[in-house]
Design goal:
Distance between the termini: 27 Å
Strand order of the largest sheet: 2-1-6-5-4-3
Helix content: 25-40%
Largest sheet: 6 strands, mixed
Order of helices and strands: HHEEHEEEE
Number of strands: 6
Length: 135
C-alpha cells in the first residue's frame, strides 16, 4: 500500500541506520540499480549504487561519524515515487534534506538523498512556539 505513513517509516529507518551506524540496514534501504544518487554536504554528486553504498560505508565506519537527528519530516507522494523533506540536525548545525524513494516490490527504496546546510530562524513561530522548519 502506498501511503504517507509507510513512506515516513522508511525515512525513519534511514535515520535509524545512520544513527546506529548500521551499514547492512543502510544498504538494504537503497534501490538495487545504478540510477541511485546521493549528495552529502560539501561533496560532489555520487551516482550509482556501488558508489553510493561505498560513501555510506565510509561515513558509518568512521569514528567521527556525526550524531544526526531528523526533524519535521514532510512526505509527498506521486504515483510510485515519494520524497521526504526534513531538517537534519547535527549539534547546533541544521541541514535541509531531501530523501527520494521509489516503491519497489511493495517497499519504499531510496533513490536519492541530498542535504545542505541552512540557517535556522531565530524568531519563534506563531503562538510563541518553535518556528516551522519545513514550509
Amino acid at each position: 500500500m502506498v501511503d504517507k505513513a509507510s513512506l515516513l517509516a522508511a525515512n525513519a529507518a534511514f535515520y535509524t541506520a545512520f544513527r546506529i551506524r548500521d551499514l547492512a540496514g543502510m544498504t538494504s534501504l537503497w534501490a538495487d540499480d545504478d540510477t541511485v544518487s546521493c549528495i552529502h554536504p560539501g561533496w560532489p554528486a555520487i551516482i550509482g549504487r556501488k558508489a553510493v553504498v561505498g560513501s555510506w560505508r565510509n561515513i558509518l565506519g568512521s569514528e567521527h561519524s556525526p550524531a544526526i537527528s531528523c526533524h519535521d519530516p514532510y512526505a509527498i507522494i506521486s504515483g510510485d515515487e515519494g520524497r521526504v523533506l526534513c531538517i537534519e540536525k547535527i549539534g547546533s548545525m541544521a541541514l535541509a534534506a531531501s530523501n527520494h524513494f521509489r516503491q519497489i516490490e511493495g517497499h519504499w527504496k531510496l533513490v536519492h538523498h541530498q542535504s545542505s546546510p541552512i540557517a535556522l530562524p531565530d524568531e519563534p513561530g506563531e503562538n510563541g512556539g518553535q518556528p516551522s522548519l519545513v514550509h
